[in-house]
Amino acid sequence: MHNSITAVFRIRFHIVILTSCSFFPSMVISTQGFITLFIKFVYIPACSTCLITDIFTSLTPAFYFIIHTLRAEYNKNNPLYEASLSSFSKTNTRTQNVSLDVRYNFKPNLYVTAQGTYSTSKGTSDAFKSPDSNAFTADAPLTSRGSYTLGNLGTDNWSAKVVGNWIHNFDKDGTMFTLNLGWELKRQKSTSSYLTGSGFLSDELADISYASTYSTSQLPYGGEDLATSVGGFAAANFIWKNRYVVDGSYRLSGSSKFGADKRTAPFWSVGAGYNLHNENFIRDLGFVDMLRLRGSYG
Burial of 145 by CB count in 10 Å (0-12 exposed, 13-18 middle, 19+ buried)? Predict the structure, then answer.
């Protein structure tokens, strides 16, 4: 089967006597993607007493000669041919998400928040390439022509988090202290599996059940990834007169992604800031709404 577009143009001039001419175009479009165009100019003498058949029978081959022949060829894969096949690639995914937030106030400045999330997803992927596709050579064996790849994907994740919050105001000028203590737990799981069949006998048999064999270049495969983590953290923040800010945080995390010799790791940071926009000499400028200096390390 041809898998390209070939355009052929031929222009032939037949001269008898330059008194009149006729134009005979013809075009042939094959089902295999080839387009051939023939254009012929025939010049016939003006003769009121003779028939056209008489003229052609009386002419010798010497009157017929080809002035010029033009041939152009475009040999590339035909995208319109590929679009006419049953090849496809599609995915289907279904996801469910559930979340819950709870807050309990012991006092206006002392409360606990709890968050929980759960999500799961299931998906499939289907990719079929027709045995008549240009991706397969004409001399390829039937067992390797056409392919269908079926994939199954899934995720299952959940997390839980509890945080205690305490806020204390020392005065009405913006001097306050904030403390947060929390704990967090996560679990993430993902699975995948793929199967490729080959050897399809017809373009219309676009289902993996019609595969005659497994692909020798890509055997069935799959995988699973499971990760869990747990951590506790603390964060403190102190603001004096709504001008100077000092804060710090510490977190101890454990994860199955860490090395077997050390499953936990500490993380910390400290920082300081200065709210210049609350100083009188900055307010007096009249065009500065916020100006803050801040630095951190960790």
Answer: buried
Encode pLDDT of 224-274 as tens digits.
Answer: 999 999 999 999 999 998 899 999 999 999 999 888 788 889 999 999 999
Taking CA atoms, 278 is separated from 174, 272, 292, in Å, by 11, 16, 9
Report how far residue 103's alpha carbon sits from residue 106's, in angstroms, rounded to the nearest whole number. Answer: 10
Q: Which residues contact 287 (CB under 8 A, 6 or more apart)?
A: none
Whether 75 and 220 share a structural domain: no
Angstrom distance (rounded) from CA 133 to CA 147: 10
Instruction: Look up the domain containing 148 and give its range.
Output: 86-297
> Which residues, at least 6 apart from 227, have a Cβ–Cβ distance to it below 8 Å?
186, 187, 188, 189, 255, 256, 257
Among 198, 204, 192, 219, CA closest to 91: 192
Half-sphere exposure of 177 (CA within 13 A, CB side): 3
pTM of the model: 0.60
Verify that 138 and 262 share a domain, yes or no: yes
